[in-house]
User: What shape does this take?
Amino acid sequence: MKAPVTPDVLTVPRKEVADRPNLIGMTRDALRDALIEIGIPERQAKMRTGQIWQWLYHWGVRDFAAMTNLSKDIRAKLADWFTVELPEVVTRQVSGDGTRKYLVRIAGGHEVEVVYIPEEGRGTLCVSSQVGCTLTCSFCHTGTQKLVRNLTAGEIVGQVMLARDDLEEWPEPGTGTGDKGPRLLSNIVLMGMGEPLYNFENVRDAMRIVMDGEGIALGRRRITLSTSGVVPEIARTAQEIGCLLAVSFHATTDAVRDVLVPINKRWNIDTLLDALRDYPKATNSERITFEYVMLDGVNDSDADAHRLVELLEGIPAKVNLIPFNEWPGAPYTRSSNNRIRAFATILMQAGYASPIRTPRGEDIMAACGQLKSATERQRKSRAQIVSEAGL
Ligand code: SAH
Ligand code: SF4
Assistant: This one.
């Protein structure tokens, strides 16, 4: 028997019953096809795509009614068939140093974190590509969480858009081309949760939207994708995204890297370095960043530094030394500042720029390897408080 239709159903907002596709995250081609499918004449589709694209990604407009260069008919049609939605910001924390951390909810109730780090005349957004991670790097807290799912392209570009919302960085409609001054959100690093190269297509489509000159228009050199070393996808990253590359290197022997970054057992140091040597964009002006987490007594000796110099030979590289961000139960501790400095000196003497990453936003636990997990811990402790109080 068919369930009776209750008046309730009719009062549910349309978007919740209709399951309409979200325009955010569609490539230009997909958007054009979607417009044709709802009856927009093919000869107009390219122009309409361009108009809608600019509203969404240049002006940051989400309401079809405000897209004033489209006819009323088209606006109504769009509203009938599509939504424009970003992931929902659940909490927003601002650190004493200006770092902002957003906990963001995506479809299915999963949560990921996005971090904005302001710097002099620029600002970097650290974006997540997966909920959790299938890899199990032993120093990374994300690695202890099971992968829940890949983010969609819309959820990835949505992180950039919600940060621009919060920074109030969309130009005012009707004011020409918008602010040409230094951008608050000028750079993107794919260094949040997840392994971006295990979600290649969605990351690629999202970054193409971000780079598109008629929208957010961030240049490809303002985007850095960090990978643990998914060798077969490295060449594609250059060809299909063209962004800068960072590699979670972290060790100078296969024996140690096998433990720290277990994907090394599949593609070892030599194989990885060969792929990096061929990275078409690895010229001197677009060097590959080698991320190297400093773990006390594990990978931080002078011998490691010298070996690293030898391994990097022939690759335009810079090294980013990351003081280990400790998390409860972590099997490692952070190298001392003196050790990190000594390591950096050896690299510098060999001609490698090797900045030591200053921890930012520590008071809100916005650091690498702590994303999301810290929030979970906070929740747990709140739950503990409740149970201890016998509530
Ligand atoms: N999965 C990708 C990108 C996300 S991790 C990758 O592994 O490259 C971003 C960077 O943070 C990586 O270099 C990772 O090795 C590093 N990282 C993870 N946990 C960390 C921790 N606890 N302390 C310092 N760096 C960490
Ligand atoms: Fe995954 Fe990167 Fe963490 Fe390794 S370091 S577990 S690849 S997020």
User: Anything to note?
Assistant: The mean pLDDT is 87. Residues 139-140, 191, 195, 226-228, 248, 291, 293, 322, 324-325, 368-369 surround S-adenosyl-L-homocysteine (ligand 1) (CB under 6 Å). The longest strand covers residues 111-119.
